[in-house]
């Protein structure tokens, strides 16, 4: 870690290619690239010993020779039951349960409940996310206040509550017999942590509407990861809508005025962090898709990933001494404490609404609801935080959401057609 300042000092072009806000120029410790390497070093201090232990148990053929009270734990973490189920049609989610003799009014009520739950959870989450990362706390007439800078602590807060909720749900409800080796969750967990960190950190450099549009365009790298990781093939309409999304995002980004307020300037760091978010998130979804070949429920997946997420983040925070510093910040600013807790509650509740919505109504309805949520999030952010959108930028936003709705329509048509295929034929896999 002592070599990191020297490495960063050798990259003057990256540091000077953009205007870093004065609040971020206090020290190298406030530069996002430095924090990224420090966090990665903290994760490596847990991953490397874990990897060596796994290799040790496999070389010793511990599954046949192991004994003692630790055997069930080691077997579950390193080997699992190794029993896989047939890959499900939707990839990362179980087939939804068809409603049996349910009245139309009841189904409408469930749909409204799911829509309201998803919109309330994720719209509140998005507004709070921008508030926490871009505004100060404790400002008075004489004191400008201070900003919260440690994105990793917010990731830890989200994951610890999601871990608790998923654990309680698994304990109180009947779940499939777990078969996946626990260590395999760590890959999705690590990429999920890094994608969330990049998402929070990017808000220091770019506007929230820009981030939402970039997240909407992640279907492009997801398709690329699908071809590389899972060897998937795609239909022509998927490439067409991906191209429309990239055009719309480009229109929005290029319409940014150079004299705009610093909080809405798309900087080089913001672009790099957004790219990191999209890459890590694309890997997460594809790795989880592969893990679902084991017989497990989405809540079991949520629990397994968050176990390692809590382990990685709390280990890194303790090594850096950032956990106590963040807790002191919470003690100084009760408003931040309320925001951080509500942020975590919205994230955990939103995940449960996702599972319930897809189980009851399918992925197409869920995608429509979440696409509308992204549009509402941009509108609310512009109204609350004063972001401005030019005419060209507005057209770009419209192109992106038209392309997203086209994807939903085309996918639903393809699924209806695939049900009519002869038994020997299989439809093309989708993202």
UniProtKB/TrEMBL annotation:
Main location: membrane
Pfam families referenced in this protein's UniProt entry, alphabetically: UAA
Record carries keyword Glycosyltransferase: no
Cell location: Membrane
Chain segments annotated as transmembrane: 33-57, 236-255, 261-280, 301-318, 338-356, 363-386, 392-410
Signal peptide segment: 1-17
Protein's membrane topology: Multi-pass membrane protein
Keyword tags: Membrane, Signal, Transmembrane, Transmembrane helix, Transport
Domain of life assignment: Eukaryota
SUPFAM superfamilies per the UniProt record, alphabetical: Multidrug resistance efflux transporter EmrE (SSF103481)
A GO-annotated cellular component: Golgi membrane
GO molecular function: 3'-phosphoadenosine 5'-phosphosulfate transmembrane transporter activity
Protein family: Belongs to the nucleotide-sugar transporter family. SLC35B subfamily.
Name the UniProt record assigns to this protein: Adenosine 3'-phospho 5'-phosphosulfate transporter 1
Organism: Balaeniceps rex (Shoebill)
